[in-house]
Write a structure and sequence with these properties.
By secondary structure, the chain is α/β, with parallel strands linked by helices. It has two domains: 197 residues, Spore Coat Polysaccharide Biosynthesis Protein SpsA, Chain A, CATH 3.90.550; 44 residues. The protein has ten helices and ten strands. Helix 9 packs antiparallel against helix 10. The longest helix has 18 residues.
Length: 249
Amino acid sequence: MEKDLISIIIPVYNAEKFITETIQTIQEQTYTNWEAIFVDDKSTDNSKKIIKQNLQKNMKLIELSENYGPAIARNKGLEVSKGRYITYLDADDLLAKNKLEVQHKFMRENNYAFSYTSYKQIKKNGKIGKQVKVQEKLDYKEALKRIRILTNTTMFDVEKIGKELLMMPNLEKTEDVATWWKVLKKGNIAYGLNEPLAFYRRSHNTRSSNKFKSMIKRWKLYREVEQFSFIKSLYYFLNYIINAILRRI
């Protein structure tokens, strides 16, 4: 099964503090048939220089002429990717050494087109937090009510889904959710694997004001992206709020 090429797409913007460790987490994968596509989103620090110093034959660097944001950067990487399977990794985050191997096996053995895994947070002091568990499976309607899919945990079979469906809309911090909905809306199911195979660094700014902004962005997804009526949007929005509260109890 290792004959399947897995493309890892990494958008990069001013990540010099962590990019070396991120590169290492790719190089240490137990699954060896991968390509890593770094897309530098017009960084102003030494990120690009560090990537160039660590490039191997199965790695490539794409340099964007402007700072477009992570959605466009991921789409540029997707365009040039050659793998049957696509996965993402943010430039400051990490993968478990067996992430590609375990998730690829999970998908191949079950004939899945879309999967995601549980994950853990890397705290500011470098310590690893508790595992965030995920749902066993999600369809479109269920995902509208609650969705906990971290971008770094996803993997897609391009032969089943196609690249076009994975192209992300250029939305501020909601491009991932909009994309997962788009994929699921076509009748695909997302299958969760409850093994913590990814590690992410939470944004420093997690105050209540940002939670309020997230709520506004979610409402706009219902109304402007999905183009639901006010009543339908309210139904799913209230479900989203209730599930967010229940997660914290």
